[in-house]
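Meet the record:
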Amino acid sequence: MTFNEGLQIDPDRASSGGGPGMGGKLALGGGAGGLILLVVGLLLGGDPGSLLGQLNGSESSTVQPGTAGTPAHCKTGADANKYVDCRVVLTAQSLDAVWAAQLPQQTGKKYSKPKLVLFSGAVSTGCGNATSAVGPFYCPSDRTAYFDTAFFQELVDRFGSSGGPLAQEYVVAHEVGHHIQNLLGDIGRAQQDPRGPESGAVRTELQADCYAGIWAHFADKQPAPGTDQPFLKALSDNDIRDALSAASAVGDDRIQRAAQGRVNPEAWTHGSSDQRQKWFLTGYKIGQVQACDTYSAADLNNPSALR
């Protein structure tokens, strides 16, 4: 999968460095156990403010001020095919185009863009301070998706995902999926019922996976604004396998098994590897928001089983 090379990257779509105008210190929990907790709780959509406070540690990391604007080397689709930070930004532009068209048509709600911050090391957010250990996340309070692009190599090295572009783009699409939930008024359900295999938290995460699939359904068809050219060249079966690999890699059961040698569904917050793949595929195959109603699903293992 590649972007069409001639597409222009918006120089104002992202901020980079850290949270704009932010500063201060961040306490980082020490040891592998702390990092696993952060990953399990925050990977793909958690709340950094709620979990970071649970960790005790003496290491500190300076939160660097951000700079307005997309990284200067990100100009075209060809750059997005070469550099991961450019890929994140152009993926966000593709998501903007898809959701600006589909959200009003399918739900009657107007789409507004989430902010996008690329940071390195640590960042201050409307949900609290965070480091790169948390992985990518969306903060509802400031309507911003945060990415330390070094995470994408961690996704391969530590979690066993493929390194394909659509594996990375799936992560961006998932975070923007949380923004869609925020616009539709659903994201708060995760906190009302935060843990367990049938919990609101799991249903919220699986719905964001499904919304990521909706983006993939339209991404190689929806023209970039001002052009008749779609953002992505036609998706192949291998591209979809890359996205499924990333979804599988961050399933609760897989992370628990790797971290503690056993699976405890009562502690799930994101859903199993199999569930995450199935809900992504549902969005991809159907392309409709109503097909992603995880809250009405009688069986989360069977996306078609709506109540």
In short: Strands lie at 15-17, 25-28, 59-62, 67-68, 115-119, 122-125, 128-131, 137-139, 144-147. The longest strand covers residues 115-119.
